[in-house]
Amino acid sequence: MPLLPCPSLTRTTRSPRIAAMLALALTSGCATMPTPRNVSGAQYQPTQRLQETLGTDRCLTPQLPAALGPLTAEPAEDLAALPDVLGPGDRLRLDVSGDRDVLSHDYVIAANGSLTINGIGPVLAAGRSSADVSDEVRSKLVATGLIRDIVNNIRLVATERAGVAVSVEGAVFEPGVIIAGDRSADARATTVANPALGDFNNGRSLATAIRAAGGLRPDAALDAVYLVRGNRYARIDLSPVLGGVEGSDGTGGLPVDPQLARGDRIIIPSKGCFQLKLVRPSPVTAPGIRVYMSNLSRPAASNAASAIGRDATSLPYGTRFLQGLIAANCIGGSALNAGRSAVLISRNPVNGHSVVIARKVEALVRDADRDDVDPYLMPGDAIACYDSAAMTFVDAVGVAGNLLGPAVLAKNLKP
Fold it and tell me: Can you give the residue ranges of the Polysaccharide export protein N-terminal domain (predicted)?
């Protein structure tokens, strides 16, 4: 919408002070929101820039992380085929032939990784398979004379697998240590009340851990995810999770998704470019995002009046700026106020720089090239809606009237 012309103040006014107040009020309404300035390299997405910048979105082939150089590489399939290892918090069931309550009990691995069984003291269990721990327990029970040396006279199985602490590093939104597979108190109570010989905790998988760390960023190297365990590592290609999504290789299928152990490291390198195929809900990306919204444009006097609540600010991952403006009730209305402006406040997750961009709302709605300048919303972004220039001018006229009224009245009351 074109800006309304500023009113002329050439008419002779009896009071210079009144004229000055009128000029200040009216000309303030003619000002438009200045274009936000950002430091060089702050823009994360191509759609955050109004002009094309050559060479800024070239994808790079990530190198092997330096920390993995001294370690031994293994095929991802071999690492995934290894038996699940025990960890602190895992619940085990020990059954001894001919025994009911002395040795046969449920046991929980302690925080230091040990398993304490009556008569034989602590046994290191963390980082080992159930079969390995069972063999050691049997040997110690036989050595102490608590059981006879009879084949298959004890059984030790995991009945509940607790969450494990793993490190997720690199191109995720919330890198750090997370507890993969941590269950709620209600879920654990249900497992204890309904015991079974064996347990599968799908939250201890590689993909679930990545999602718990905020999900992959759009610059992540999906085909070069590294899982480090001890002195070994495997490079895992997670591209099949995208299936036939535009921009993927289209292979589909299921990726290698190994179960995790306590102390595992997950390293996701960056490709240094924005990949549109990763801006969607998937097993390794965020299912949804929370966006902060403010809409104080007329006629709303508060965000509550703009119907901005928790549901409006929770959006699916892959939502664009224009869709977020609709959720903020920043689009539509009278022709006088439809020409609003809006800003998007974001942060470059790679270098940490803040990014503020401004767009004309009606231009996003009407222009055919809107997709080139309509950014995707990222977790923690903020949206603000501003009144149109016409409504700003109307407010300025109102301010001028409020200033002129008392001044004219006071002048007329003078003797």
Answer: 85-155
- How many angstroms from the chain centroid is the CA of residue 201? 23
Q: Are residues 99 and 197 in the same domain?
A: no
Domain count, the chain: 3
Q: Counting beta carbons within 10 angstroms of the beta carbon of residue 53, is it exposed (0 to 12), middle (13 to 18) or buried (19 or more)? A: exposed
Give the C-alpha separation, 280 to 5, whole Å: 44
158/197 Cα distance (integer angstroms): 7
What is the bridge-based pairing of β-strands 176-180 and 232-236?
unpaired
Q: 89: which residues sit within 8 A by CB, 6+ positions away?
A: 108, 109, 111, 162, 163
Which run of H or of E encompasses 21? Answer: helix 16-28
Tens of pLDDT along 204-252? 999 999 999 999 999 999 999 999 999 999 999 999 988 755 555 555 6
CA 368 distance to own-chain centroid: 30
d(CA 388, CA 33): 10
**What letter would DSSP give residue 100?**
S
Do 320 and 262 have their domain in common? no
| Amino acid at position 378, single letter | M
Report DSSP letters for 35-53, one per residue: PP---TT---SGGG-SS--
Read off the pLDDT of residues 139-185 as tens digits, 9 standing for 90 and up: 999 999 888 888 888 999 998 899 999 999 999 999 999 999 888 87
Asked if 257 and 209 count as a contact pair (C-beta separation under 8 A), the reply is no
Closest Cα to residue 361, out of 340, 336, 332, 380? 340
With tokens 């006279």, the residue in question is: 153
Q: If you count them, how many residues does the chain have?
A: 415
> Do both 253 and 308 map to the same domain?
no
For tokens 């099949």, name the residue: 240
72 and 191 inside one domain: yes
193 shares its domain with 298: no
